[in-house]
Write a structure and sequence with these properties.
Layout: E1 2-6, H1 11-20, H2 23-28, E2 34-38, H3 47-53, E3 59-62, H4 89-99
Parallel strand pairs: 1-2
Antiparallel strand pairs: 1-3
């Protein structure tokens, strides 16, 4: 599962969303359950992740079939490991493909 945490007011979220609206992204997502979560809804499931990783957006999390966070699939940023900007779409597509490998 891939969860994109966004906020409507976030310009980086809008820039990333615009880049993800293409056939290559759709192809990379074929085997994933894709979920969008508005950060401002303050869902209970997100609170532990905000506490650990701060409340920045956009964030992309990958979870395994048991619901465990795939910490190995991240952006590599030392302070914001689940942040992906619009310039990181190729990395995100690669991680989407990696998430589907067993």
């Amino acid at each position: 599962m891939m969860v994109l945490v966004y906020a409507h007011w976030c310009s980086k979220c809008r820039s990333l969303a615009a880049k993800l609206d293409n056939p290559e992204f759709a192809a990379a997502s074929k085997g994933l359950v894709m979920v969008g979560q508005n950060h401002d809804d303050e869902p209970a499931w997100l609170q532990p992740y905000n506490a650990e990783f701060r409340g920045y957006v956009p964030k992309v999390f990958f979870f395994d079939s048991a619901g465990k966070l795939r910490r190995d699939l991240n952006s590599g940023h030392p302070r914001y490991p689940y942040f992906y900007g619009s310039s990181q779409v190729e990395l995100l597509k690669q991680l989407m493909r990696d998430a589907q490998k067993i």
